[in-house]
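Lab notebook, bench 4. Still working through the backlog of constructs that have no structural model yet. Next entry is a single chain of 301 residues. Request: give me the structure tokens for it.
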Amino acid sequence: MNGLTEEEFLAGYDAGDYARPSMAADMVIFTVSDEKTENYRKLPERSLRVLLIRRGGHPYLGCWALPGGFVRPTETIEQAAERELREETGVDRVYLEQLHTFSDVGRDPRTWVMSCAYMALVDSRGLKIQAGDDAEHAAWFKLTYRLRGDSRERLEEGGVLHIRRFDLKLTLETEEGEETELQAVVEHRRTRTNRASAEEYRIAENRGLAFDHAKIIAMAIERLRGRVEESDLALHLMPELFTLTELQQVYEAILDRELLKAAFRRKAEPLVEKSDQYTENAGHRPSRLYRRSREEWGDYR
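Model written out:
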């Protein structure tokens, strides 16, 4: 082209001819943990939690946000996500899935920043979390995400706009009894015509979460719930040995609804296998412990 070889073209190419965004990797790290109970004979309930960090610098100084950081020139986005996960939790070799790329104009007040978000699932028992260099504190927030309203409207140009509004609530209780609560209303909007369909998430209200992270969390929890319904994804949140009741509690914490015991056990049967061990010192009748099916998972240690 223009009489140039590729080497000559590249030698004269100016990358500054085009605006270039900064690229970040943000992490939605989920776990399921026990709720406090004063009755040792009663099985503890479980809740879905997400890891948040309190920002130690501008912008959004003092606000809570998802852990994450900028991609370095020497790494891929996935390597940046794995690094952020190790820095915040000290673990690797956990379930990690690319969620979505968020590129709304103005999503970061500093400059043009695009974020590739990842969803991770970890068993938080015995896990020590620590805030990164740009954060004051890191903590597991209890998460609820519930439908507030559902509406449909016909569009003048043809088609239907379906809007589902969700209440997102994130709660942190300290050992001293203090409580921090973050809230947002997120809209999941789907537009359908006879030729095409499109969907997007919008933040209608936001109190306490930095950037567009309420939208990222909303997309992640919907992805997680959809995947759990159709796969064995929840097993990534379990320790090596567990009871079927504990596994059911994890499913219920994610889906935010009770499941019929018999139906759940039929579904779980091909995913797990019996061990020769039972619970001890649990304050109630010993229960058999199970592990992930080695036929399906192989050597997963």
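Notes after review: The longest strand covers residues 135-154. The chain has a mean pLDDT of 89. Flag for follow-up if needed.
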